[in-house]
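This part of the workshop introduces the protein records we will be handling. The structure tokens are whole numbers drawn from a learned vocabulary of backbone shapes. The record below serves as our worked example for the rest of this section.

===
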Amino acid sequence: PETDVLSRVMQADSVFDGRLTAKQIVQTWRLDAELVTLSGCETALGKAEGGEGLVGFSQALLASGARSLVLSLWKVDDMATALLMHRFYENLTGAFTDHRRIAGNDYSQGHPMPKAIALREAKRWIRSNSAEQNRTALRGMGFPIPEDNTALASARAGIRMSKERPHAAFDYSDPHFWAAFILTGCPD
């Protein structure tokens, strides 16, 4: 989409309403960023602009100096996204304490993974976790996980996935939960 709410900030002479457009990024931002991640809903989508094709955050951020982007293609689940992004950034920074093997390579604590491999490993991890592993990881991140599964399932706000399973099961193996996120730009 053309806009996404990032934050609401008071500035000395005006109030920033939190809306950001691709046009604002192109006109005012000068980045020197190895990676920009927008983990909100549909951040990789654009708006048809005549002969320009789809124009959105991807083009604006790359034109403004980002070398890589992680963006989403559809509406994403908050808890599944929190888990995925936490694991992705652990992989990216090497801030994990276990041994991780992906794409024929071994990674140990303090050894960051390239961006594409870090995202691939995070997706593999979340889809292979048990519901209890996901529940435990979310609690460890500070999410208040209610014991009443029906209350949590009703809080999903209508997000659906193929062969609907109750969200309260914390089963994030369905691609709906992890496949929305794509890496664009430099994979290393």
Summary: The chain is about 30% helix and 20% strand. Residues 78-93 form the longest helix (16 residues). Residues 7 and 137 are 27 Å apart (CA to CA). The first strand starts at residue 3 and ends at 5.
